From TrEMBL:
It comes from the Bacteria. Coiled coil: none annotated. The keyword Transferase applies. Pfam families: Glycos_transf_2. Keywords: Glycosyltransferase, Transferase. Residues 7-153 form the Glycosyltransferase 2-like domain. PANTHER family: GLYCOSYLTRANSFERASE, GLYCOSYLTRANSFERASE TAGX-RELATED. This is Glycosyltransferase. Its EC number is 2.4.-.-. It is an enzyme of class 2 (transferase). GO terms for molecular function: glycosyltransferase activity.
C-alpha cells in the first residue's frame, strides 16, 4: 500500500534560498512505497511564486509542488496554513523543513525508517549550520549534540521534522500552532503539546539538513536581538500555558538575577578590555546576553511582542 508523504515549507522574501531548498527535495531518495509531494506557503500579501513563476518552478522539478499564500504576517499563521495545505493532499506523513535549509538525499528515508523501527509518530533530526561569515568569538554557537537514534524527546523545533498526519488531522488530534505566539517558540510549544497528548517522539541522529546562516544574522545587534526574542517568547509561552501569576513567580526573580549579574559582568568586562581584549570582550558580551535574557523575560510576562522576525536574513 502506497503511503503519501507531504513536505511543507514556509517562506517569506527568500526566493533564492527557497529554490535551493526545493532543489534539494528534488534529489531526495524516495522511500519504497511512498508518494512524495511538496507544499510551499508564502507569508506575503503579494506572493512571488504565482502564475508563470510558479509554473516555471514546477516544470524544473519532478516532485509535485503546490504553492499558496498566507497574508497574515506571522510564523504560526504560515505554519498552520502549511498544515492545511498539506492535509488537502490526504497524507499519511507530513515533513517540515525551513526555506533556508537543504536536505541531505537520504533525509526523508532516515526519518521514515526510524519512525517505523521505533514505532514513533514524530522524528526530529540535526541541523548542520553553514556560516557565510564566522560568528564572533564571544558567541556560543549552537553545536550538534549527538544522541542515539531512537532516543525519546519531549520537544522539537520545526526545522527538521517528520510527523504522522494524525497529529494535525481533524479526525485525529487536530493540533495547530498557537497563533498568539507570533514572535517565537511556536514550534517548541506545538511539540510540547504533541508530547503531552501521548505521542511518541524520537531523535534521528543521521537525518541531516543544512542551514545557511547569512552574515547579517551574526552581527552583534542580531545576535543580541535573538537572545532577547527567545527570552521574550519563552516567558510568554509559560504565561499562556500556566498563567501569569505562576509565570511571574518563576521569571521575576530569575529576570532580576540575570540583569544584576549581567550588569556586573558588563562593567567588569568593559574595564578589562584595554588589558585583555579577548577575555574582556567575552565577559562584556556575556553580560549583555544576560541583560537581554532578563529584560526579555520581563517583556514576555507583559505579553509584549518582539520584532526579531520582522527582519528577513538572506535572499
Amino acid at each position: 500500500m502506497t503511503q503519501k508523504l507531504v513536505i511543507a515549507v514556509c517562506t517569506a522574501q527568500r526566493p533564492k534560498m527557497l529554490m535551493s531548498c526545493l532543489e534539494s527535495l528534488e534529489r531526495l531518495v524516495r522511500p519504497a512505497g511512498t508518494e512524495l509531494s511538496v507544499v510551499v506557503v508564502e507569508n506575503e500579501t503579494k506572493p512571488h511564486f504565482t502564475g508563470n513563476t510558479a509554473e516555471e518552478v514546477r516544470e524544473k522539478l519532478s516532485v509535485p509542488v503546490h504553492f499558496s499564500a498566507e497574508k497574515r504576517k506571522g510564523i504560526p499563521f504560515a505554519r498552520n496554513s502549511a498544515l492545511e495545505a498539506a492535509l488537502e493532499q490526504e497524507p499519511d506523513w507530513i515533513a517540515l523543513i525551513d526555506d533556508d535549509e537543504r536536505a541531505e538525499p537520504d533525509w526523508i528515508e532516515k526519518l521514515l525508517s526510524a519512525c517505523t523501527a521505533f514505532d514513533a509518530e514524530v522524528a526530529n533530526g540535526p541541523v548542520r549550520r553553514i556560516y557565510e561569515k564566522p560568528a564572533p568569538h564571544w558567541w556560543k554557537s549552537q553545536l550538534l549534540k549527538p544522541r542515539p537514534t531512537g532516543t525519546e524527546i519531549t520537544e522539537a523545533p520545526t526545522n527538521n521534522i517528520l510527523m504522522s498526519a494524525r497529529i494535525v488531522a481533524n479526525s485525529g488530534l487536530g493540533l495547530r500552532f498557537d497563533e498568539r505566539l507570533t514572535f517565537g517558540s511556536e514550534d517548541i510549544d506545538f511539540f510540547r503539546r504533541t508530547h503531552a497528548a501521548g505521542v511518541k517522539m524520537i531523535w534521528v541522529d543521521d537525518a541531516f539538513v543544512e542551514e545557511d546562516i547569512p552574515a547579517s544574522r551574526v552581527t552583534t545587534g542580531r545576535l543580541l536581538s535573538r537572545m532577547h526574542m527567545a527570552a521574550t517568547s519563552g516567558a510568554f509561552n509559560i504565561v499562556l500555558r500556566e498563567g501569569r501569576l505562576k509565570a511571574a513567580l518563576h521569571f521575576i526573580p530569575k529576570s532580576f538575577r540575570r540583569m544584576f549579574l549581567g550588569s556586573l559582568a558588563t562593567v567588569v568586562g568593559f574595564t578589562l578590555k584595554p588589558f585583555a581584549k579577548k577575555r574582556g570582550e567575552k565577559l562584556y558580551y556575556y553580560g549583555l546576553i544576560r541583560l537581554m535574557k532578563g529584560s526579555g523575560n520581563l517583556r514576555g510576562l507583559l505579553g509584549r511582542a518582539h520584532n526579531y522576525y520582522d527582519v528577513i536574513d538572506g535572499h
